[in-house]
Amino acid sequence: MCGVVGYIGKNNAVPVLLSGLSKLEYRGYDSAGIAVYNNGEINICKTRGRIDDLRNKLLSAPISGNLGIGHTRWATHGVPSDENAHPHFNQDSKIAVVHNGIIENYLVIKEELEAKGYKFLSETDTESVAHLLDFYYEKEGMDILDAVFKVIERIEGSYALGIICSDFPDQLIAVRKDSPLVVGLGKGENFIASDMPAILNYTRDTYLIDDNEVVVLKTDSVTVLDSNKNEVKKEVFRVDWDVEAAEKSGYDHFMLKEIYEQPKVVKENLSRRFKEDGTGVQLDSIALGKKELENINRIYICACGTAYYAGLIGKYLIERIARIPVNSEVASEFRYKDPLIDEHTLMVVVSQSGETADTLAAMRLAKSKGARVLGIVNAIGSSIAREADDVLYTLAGPEIAVASTKAFTAQVVAMYLLTIHIAQELGVLDTEKFKELKSDMEKLPSLVNEILTKAPRIKRFMHKYINSKNVFYIGRGLDYVVSQEGSLKLKEIAYLHSEPYAAGELKHGPIALIEESTLVIGVVTQEELFEKTVSNLVEVKARGARILAIAMEGNKEIEKVADDVFYIPRTHWMLAPLLANIPQQLFAYYVALGLGNDVDKPRNLAKSVTVE
Ligand code: M6R
After folding, report:
1. pLDDT, tens digit, for every residue of 56-94?
2. Judgement on whether residues 190 and 256 belong to the same structural domain of the protein
3. CA neighbours within 13 Å on the CB side: how many for 601?
C-alpha cells in the first residue's frame, strides 16, 4: 500500500528518487520521504503530505548524494504525520529503512527492543525493522548483510524493504516478501522500485524479485541471494511499455486519459486473441484444453473491487454460454470460508495489479488444495502472474489512476474471450455463432469511441445531478453487475453515497429510501429484461425519484419514464456491459471533478492494496 524506490550510482539520487516517487504516488499519498547518504552520514527529509510537499521541504533544506531510498505512504500503523513518514532510522542514524507491507509481529519485537533500551519515535511497524537491524548489526556485531538475513528470520508479514547504512556507502540492500519489488539495471547505476513506472525513465532492463530474495545493489553490480544466501541467477526482464504510457500526455487526469485509451485497449486484446483462420480464440499459451476442462466441475472467480465485478460478468457469461457452474467470490471472504476446492476446481483470479493481498491469498489457498489457477492480470511479472498456472494478460498498459477504468474494460474482454474459449472447447458454441460474436466484438473499439464522443452530454448530466445526496444504481442480470461497478466508481472518486441494487430487490426494502429527487441510475441494456427493469423505474419515479437511464439505442420506450437517457450503440447482449460502463465512468469522473475532488488520488485509497 506504499511505494518504495532506491538509487545507487554516480548521479544525485534526489531527483531520481523524487521522480520515482511521483510515479508511485498512486500507491499511497499521505506522506513521503527520502534518505540520502553523503559524506559519511545519512540525511532524511520526510513530511506528511504528498510528493510536492516533500519537494517544497527539500527546497528549504536541500540534501544530495549518490545513494538513497524513498517512500510514499498509505498509512496503516499510525496516522499520516512527519514522524510516521518513512524512512526510519536506527538509534544512531546509521541505518535508514523504507518499507511497503505490514510487519505483523512488530509489537512483540518492539516490546523486546524497548526492554533493551531502544526508543521508538513513530507508531509504525517499520521502525521495529530499523531497530532490530541496529540490534544485530551494532550490538551483536554482525555484518550488515547477515543482520538483514537475521531480521527477515524474525519478522512476519509482508515487506519490500530498502535499506542503506552509512558504514556501507557503496551498497543498497533490498528485500522482498509478499510485496512487489523490481530492480532496474542501469549503466553505472541501479534502482529498486515497487513498480516499473518509477524506473522507466532510466532503464527498461529489470529483475523481477521473488519472495524471500535479498538484493545487494552496487553502482556496477546487482547480486540476488536466496534465503540460504546462495546467489540466484536472474533473467533480465525487458519492459516494452512506452514511457508515455505512464504519463498524462496532455490529459487533465490519468483517469480521463485511461478512459480514452479504452478503444485501443479493447482492440489490442482482441487482435491478439482471435485466431487468424477466424474459427476461434487463442488465449496465449494457456493450457486449458478440452481434456483439462472436462476434468473441471467447479469454477471460482475470485477478485476484489472492480476486478470482482469483471469476474461477476464472467460468471454470468460462462454459466449462460458454457453451462458450467461458477461461483464468483470476493477474495477477502473466500480465503476465510473454507471453500470446497479440489483438483477438479478451476480457480480464476482477476487483478489489475497482480499484487492484491486478498486475491493473492485466495489464489494460494486454492492452489494448495489442488485447484488449477488461471490469473487474469494486467501487471506483467506481478506475483499473481508468476504464481498462477496460466496467465491471461489484459494488455491495458499501466493504469495509474486509483479508480480502475481501462483495466476493468480489459478484464471484461478477457471474460468474453475465456467464455468463448471454454464454450468452444466443450463444444457448446459452434463456429457460426462464434463468427457472429466475433464480428460484433470487432466493432467494440469504434463503439467505445462513439460513446466517448458523447462525453459533453454526460458532463451536462453532471451539472444537473451533482447535488444528489443519495444515488441508487439499479439493473437486472448483467445490467445489475454494471450498476455495481458504476456505484463503486461514484463512491470512490465523487464520495457520494450510492447503492447498487438488483432492480427486483428494491421493493424488498430499499425502496423505502427513495424520496423526492433521489437520483436513480437505471441500467437497462439487456433487452429481455428491459420491461421488468422499466417497471421498477416506474415504481421509483412514482415516489419522486429522478431517473437517469443507460439504455440500448432504439429502446425509446425508456424516455417515457426517465428524466434523461444515455443511449449506448446497439450491440450483442453479452457485449453491452462493456459499453454501458463507459458513460458511468465519465459520469463519476465529471461529478468528482465538479465537486473539486482529487480524481486520480481519492481520499483514503491507494491503487494497489497489498495489505489485508
Ligand atoms: O489490482 P486489483 O485489480 O487486484 O485491485 C482490486 C481493487 O482494489 C480495485 O479494483 C479497486 O476496487 C479499484 N480502485 C476500483 O476502481
Report:
1. 999 999 999 999 999 999 888 889 999 999 999 999 999
2. no
3. 15
pLDDT surpassing 90 at residue 44: yes
249 pLDDT band, cuts 50/70/90, is confident
Active site residue 2: yes
Ligand 1: which of 404, 415, 491, 493 to mutate, judged by most atoms within 8 Å of the beta carbon? 404
- Per-residue pLDDT reduced to its tens digit, 138-164: 999 999 999 999 999 999 999 999 999
Q: In the structure grid, which three cell numbers stand for residue 547, read together?
A: 431517473
Structural domain harbouring 283: 247-442
**Ligand 1 atom at minimal distance to the Cα of residue 608:** 1
Q: Give the number of C-alpha atoms closer than 13 A to the C-alpha of residue 369, restricted to the C-beta side.
A: 15
Q: Do 83 and 31 belong to one domain?
A: yes
Ligand 1 centroid – CA 350 distance (Å) = 10
342 CA distance to ligand 1 middle (Å): 27
β-sheet with 88-89: strand ranges across:
88-89, 95-103, 157-165, 172-177, 213-217, 222-225
What is the whole-number distance in angstroms between the Cα of residue 304 and the centre of ligand 1?
6
Q: Is 402 in the pocket of ligand 1 (CB under 6 A)?
A: yes
User: Does the C-beta of 379 come closer than 6 Å to ligand 1?
Assistant: no
Task: Output phi, psi for 280, to 5 deg.
Answer: 180, -165
Q: Which of 234, 438, 489, 607 is catalytic?
A: 607
Confidence of residue 547 (pLDDT cuts 50, 70, 90): very high
Q: Is 607 a catalytic residue?
A: yes
Q: Is residue 604 part of a domain?
A: no
Quote the Cα angle for 275-277-280, to 5°: 45
The CATH number given to whatever domain includes residue 284 is: 3.40.50.10490
466 and 575 belong to one structural domain:
yes
